[in-house]
Amino acid sequence: MEKKASSTKATTAGRKRPATKGAKATAKKPAKKASTKAAKPKAKPKSKRVVRGVAKKKRVVRKKRPVKAPRVTLAMAPPRGYPGAFILFHKHRILQVGAPSTSVDQAQQSARDSGAAWHALSEAEKEPFFKQAEVFKEEYKKKRAEYFENNDPKILRTLNKKRVAKGHKKLRNHRPAGQEPKPISSYFRFMAEFRETTEGTHLTGAAAARAAGERWRAMSEEEKDVYKQAWLTDKAEWEKRRQSSS
To answer: Where is the composition biased (Basic residues) (predicted)?
Structure first.
């Protein structure tokens, strides 16, 4: 019995006891190979900036709306031109006759009749209509000067844009009051003298301009030089006065 007990002790001493539940395994893990790549730094978590307990929102930048062109009405348009002497006579004749035209054909016939009656008038009979037209001209100049002086440039640009689209010329201001005009050219000097001659006194309008042009083309260069030299001297004096005033 003693031999059996000693043999059982020897066998139990050589055996390993099983690991308990709370004990950790002491077996060594195989070592990892060292990586040649550099270790990437860990990105820090984005922290929301809190101001007074409220997360800061992203600022939304809104696009600016394009500035609309001002709406142009009829009242913003420049003043219309003034009637001439013949137009005033034509209106006066219609009032005298008392038969206003109701169709295009009647209006054209009335204008032709007024033209024939206008040519039949003498210079003394035409003079009141010329004076009346001059009064309308002065009023028109004043209104136009006030319009360009007080008008908004944006409205003027809008008007010119529409006029160019329709094929009309741009609106431009005339020479300011008090500014000396340029001296007339050599041809217009000759035309002014031609109108005072016996040949040009009885001609008016296009007929006078046509006759003066034919006479100018028939002149020699020496005869034209007289008017050209007068124009050059007046132009030089005008430029000197302009520079001194500025």
So the answer is: 26-67, 163-175
